[in-house]
Amino acid sequence: MLRWIIPLAILVGTIAAVPLAVIARARVSTSEKPRLHGWQDMDNQPRFKAQQENPLYADGRAMRPPVPGTVARGESFLDTHLYQGRVADQAGKLGWAQSFPDDLTVDSEFLARGKERYEIYCSMCHGYAGQGDGMVHKRVEQRKQAGVAGFDAWAAPASYHTEIVKAQPVGQIYNTITNGKNNMAGYRAQIPVADRWAITAYVKALQLAKPKQAPGN
Ligand code: HEC
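# heme C complex -> structure
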């Protein structure tokens, strides 16, 4: 056997163990440097993160504020009648709107939409005729009578056929749907503006129709 073959085998064996040792070390230690990224594929690009500094601008901010006077298209909520159910009187003071916003056409289709939305979002509490006797309320009453604990805080849904609610202008009903009232939560997140007005129209229609018996009246 050649004499140099044993030292060579030892040398090759030692060198071959180096990558394994490096990997073993990397697995138990942490590093500040980013990991090796062999194929760039435009994965890293220069950019600014939110709220970062940028010395290029006089104010030093990377995020640019909108040009003064900018109004976002389709996102201006300046129409208080449509969005808040309130209109300004001659002195500029806002009060409940007595009429529907001009952008909406109040016809039978609108009312049908309101009925459909009402039955989805409101009837389970207020009842199909708006008498405050929806299924959820009935169930609570049933449980209470059966002596089940935990329903003491239940607030009965209002009837729409009381003088107080009947006297409310459409803007105020719209506002109740939007922002809620006392124990009732608002529905601004679930129901779009036009549908809230459609439901308002339907609530008014329910008030005009005479319920058979009106609890809470
Ligand atoms: C989870 C049950 C519940 C649902 C759903 C609900 N309400 Fe109510 N609503 C109430 C309760 C409770 C009250 C009484 C609030 C109070 O005065 O404490 C009320 C009160 C009202 C009033 C009378 C407000 C006033 O000024 O006295 C109106 C109008 C009304 N709701 C409309 C609606 C409409 C329209 C919907 C559907 C978009 C709806 N509610 C959905 C529980 C509900």
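# post-check
DSSP finds eight helices and two strands in the chain.
Residues 121-122, 124-126, 155, 157-158, 160, 165, 173, 176-177, 181-184, 187, 199, 203 surround heme C (CB under 6 Å).
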